[in-house]
User: Which sequence fits this backbone?
């Protein structure tokens, strides 16, 4: 069973009131995974948001059909993943695989949408925090791309 402290440590929901945490807990499911389990695959239709409470999960993308998948991110405890499909109904853009026995918290988009109709402050806190998280990830990717491109033309940063 998911505990409030676990959700708080993800820092995804900001400062909620006690009753709001309780409502959020009602729609949060827990799943145990073992090394090698696939959480989701690139191209899957999905609407779930994942929070890693314990273990490690890798995020992989296939750069080209003839190449193996490349790991682009390692999810560590209290990090969030799967957020694209949570807010956008397009297919998954990556594959997620458990690389250490893990415990996940999972929120289904439709459950969350119903919740924020009743408790809009939960949605406001969530989406403000999510925008910051996505901005941080985009900045990190921009830095990575810049460094990769500079190295590819033989320059030093």
Assistant:
């Amino acid at each position: 069973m998911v505990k409030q402290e676990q959700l708080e440590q993800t820092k995804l929901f900001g400062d909620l009131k006690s009753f709001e945490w309780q409502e959020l807990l009602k729609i949060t499911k827990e799943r145990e995974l073992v090394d090698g389990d696939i959480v989701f695959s690139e191209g899957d239709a999905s609407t779930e948001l994942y929070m890693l409470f314990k273990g490690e999960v890798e995020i992989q993308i296939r750069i080209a059909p003839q190449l193996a998948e490349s790991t682009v991110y390692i999810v560590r405890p209290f990090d969030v993943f799967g957020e694209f499909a949570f807010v956008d109904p397009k297919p998954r853009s990556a594959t997620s695989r458990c690389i250490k026995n893990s415990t996940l918290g999972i929120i289904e988009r439709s459950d969350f949408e119903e919740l924020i109709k009743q408790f809009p402050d939960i949605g406001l806190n969530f989406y403000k925090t999510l925008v910051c998280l996505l901005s941080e990830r985009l900045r990190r990717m921009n830095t990575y791309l810049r460094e990769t491109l500079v190295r590819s033309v033989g320059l030093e940063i």
User: Anything to note?
Assistant: The chain has five helices and six strands. Residues 42 and 94 are 4 Å apart (CA to CA). The first helix runs from residue 4 to 10. The longest strand covers residues 48-62.
